[in-house]
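Changelog entry: the Response regulator receiver protein record was regenerated in this release. Current contents:
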Amino acid sequence: MTESSAARVNRVLAAVTAVDGVVGLHSGPGVPSTHLPGRTVAGLRLGPQGGRVHVIVRLGDSLLVTAERVRAVATEAAGIPVDVVVGDVTVPHPENQERQS
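Regenerated structure tokens:
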């Protein structure tokens, strides 16, 4: 990976994780990864013609709407088409909701 590729991965990562409803990247078995100097970004792979991002989303939000927002921001940040896979969903724990009230 060149430095410019690392910068592009960082831009996409920041854009995707800023989408409301996205909890993080999914890093399960068989999920693509990007290897950068000193770290690996699991759940994100960018190639010359396109990319793929695997996300964990919050249940209760519209999965299709969230995935479309992720696709739009990832594609814009990467400058190439990026496919989105919802790899997992999470449910807010009732104890955490009570604490936030």
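The chain has one domain: 5-42+49-90.
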